[in-house]
From TrEMBL:
Its cofactor is Mg(2+). It comes from Acetobacter estunensis. Its EC number is 2.7.7.7. Residues 13-193 form the UmuC domain. One of its GO terms (cellular component) is cytosol. Pfam families: IMS, IMS_C. This is DNA polymerase IV.
Length: 364
């Protein structure tokens, strides 16, 4: 028999977010790096910062920043090459901690997850107590710190986890939720990206309070199907459940060139290499998909994408590369030289489903 839910009928959601995850692992494993400004990434002409330590952040160093810019802003910055196999192993340790407290876990990245602990309060007393216990276990078993947000829905728990970083905890109660949201800038809302924020600013929407003034029909005219979500979060409402069975939406890889590339032949050759790497990842995960998307980032950092979709899942590396090449061809002649090219496969299915589809074709 399940333990009783809270009398208010609301969920109890935690958002656990590791503090400077990649950089903190590197500082944990090498004491000489502790207390020093650190960037995980490659220090080269086309390198990009994957993560920055808290000591590097006052200098403006942040993830996704070109390494050359990071070095300019922080001359004493130390670069460490990423060790993703180590990060994945530590992530698995952290996930194992979560499972002691609830089976309802939705990983959002290697370093963060949403947890629904509504049905597990009786054993621990409160959601806040569970969050503190999880943070203590993570520190004891990995030597790392995590920040936690506690609230009655996923949106607010995510916002709360950012409030007292690093190594902090923040609670947003049902009474506090609508008031808390009203004061925040819309660009700080998870689910509102830079392009949407700019569009909102153009409409005079700068804060949660501004967003709350708009009827849902008016929002729908500007933001389509996302209008209901924006309408809800401006009032502290988010009915999305924590979904432990959430399926991966896409899988992709990319490469940044040492020098800008302008020839079609060179770009197609790079795409062939990327397709081989991507298909190897798909094979390992037993995934295929129906939509292939090429991403190109020009020398001025402008980014464009082109996609090709088919009715049945991609069957092999050659088909993946062909679809990518067809998508890439639509960008020629190039607007300017290219610094990065990437390839993504989406509309994913598991390989046994893909295989069944192909058998159907042959049987006909």
């Amino acid at each position: 028999m399940s333990p009783p839910r809270p009398h208010d009928g609301l969920r109890r959601i935690l958002h656990i977010d590791m503090d400077a995850f990649y950089a903190s692992i590197e500082q944990r494993d090498d004491p000489a790096l502790r207390g020093r400004p650190l960037a995980v990434g490659r220090e080269e002409a086309r390198g990009v910062v994957a993560a920055a330590s808290y000591e590097a952040r006052p200098f403006g160093v942040r993830s996704a920043m070109p390494s050359i810019v990071a070095r300019r802003q922080c001359p004493d910055l130390i670069f460490v090459r990423p060790r993703f196999e180590v990060y994945r192993a530590v992530s698995a340790q952290i996930h194992a901690v979560f499972t002691r407290y609830t089976p309802l876990i939705q990983p959002l990245a290697l370093d963060e997850a949403s947890l629904d602990v509504t049905d597990h309060l009786e054993s621990f007393g409160s959601a806040t107590a569970i969050a503190e216990a999880i943070r203590a276990d993570i520190r004891k078993e990995t030597g790392l710190t995590a920040s936690a947000g506690v609230s009655y829905n996923r949106f607010l728990a995510k916002l709360a986890s950012d409030q007292n970083k690093p190594d902090g905890l923040f609670v947003i109660t049902p009474k506090q939720g609508p008031v808390f949201v009203a004061t925040l800038a819309v660009e700080t809302f998870h689910g509102i990206g830079p392009a949407t924020a700019r569009k909102m600013h153009a409409l005079g929407i700068h804060t949660g309070a501004d967003l709350r003034k708009w009827p849902v029909d008016a929002l729908r005219g500007h933001f389509g199907s996302a209008a209901e979500f924006y309408y809800g979060i401006s009032r502290g409402i988010d009915n999305r459940p924590v979904n432990p069975d959430r399926q991966r939406k896409s899988i992709g890889t990319e490469t940044t060139f040492e020098r800008d590339v302008a020839s079609q032949e060179d770009l197609q050759a790079a795409l062939e290499t990327i397709a081989a790497k991507l298909w190897a990842s798909c094979t390992k995960r037993q995934l295929s998909g129906c939509t292939v998307t090429v991403k190109v980032k020009y020398a001025n950092f402008q980014q464009v994408t082109r996609a090709r979709s088919i009715s049945d899942p991609v069957t092999d590396e050659r088909e993946l590369a062909t679809l990518g090449r067809l998508a890439l061809q639509t960008l020629f002649p190039l607007a300017r030289p290219v610094r990065l090219v990437g390839l993504t496969l989406s509309a994913l299915v598991e390989n046994d489903v893909a295989h069944e589809g192909q058998l159907g074709l042959f049987e006909k």
